Amino acid sequence: MSYLVFISFQSSDSKLAGLIRNALQGQGISVFLAPDSISPGARWSDEIFKSLKSSDMVLFLASKKAIHSDYVAQEIGGAHFSNKLLVPVIWEIKPEELPGWAKGYQALDLRKLGPVWLNHLSQWIASLKDQKNKNSFYNKVALGVLAGLLVWAGSENDDNNEDV
What is the pLDDT of residues 52-87, one digit of tens each? Predict the structure, then answer.
């Protein structure tokens, strides 16, 4: 199967990865997310390689743990050498902390948005909806990613409020 978006992530970020996948699929975009896209009995490495090769874009969820993952590094290297559109999404690290080849790609840096990043993302989504090209592939991806991030951020805030 061919996918438009391949999500590269570390297992500790599976909640965010799943939310982004759901949001992208809601936009009609086919998404590869290893735990859900690989059939029982299939060889993980073979399926990941085929899916990475057939995908148009790779979203790299670059968390503190993901940047130290050998598996994620292999996926990012594969994306780089396959000339895929690679979008690192960072929130816990600085761009210069991105591993290897990922440093050469412009990241979606959630840290720059400060404590009100959720509000900034909402405004960005609204502006994308107003653009003339709102049905283009990349706008749909951006909307899906940001919708997933909004849901994730809301759930993180709910989790933090429970501790109070």
Answer: 999 988 989 999 999 999 999 999 999 999 998 888
Cα separation, 71 vs 157, in Å, equals 30
Instruction: Kindly report the CATH number assigned to the domain that includes residue 91.
Output: 3.40.50.10140
Beta-sheet strand order (sheet of 31-32): 31-32, 5-8, 57-62, 85-90, 108-109
Cα separation, 89 vs 110, whole angstroms = 7
Task: State the residue range of the domain holding 46.
Answer: 5-162
144-162 pLDDT, tens digit each:
676 666 667 666 655 544 4
pTM of the model: 0.75
Asked if residues 102 and 77 have their Cβ atoms less than 8 Å apart, the reply is no
How far is residue 16's CA from residue 42's CA, in Å, rounded to a whole number?
Answer: 24
Residues in the chain: 164
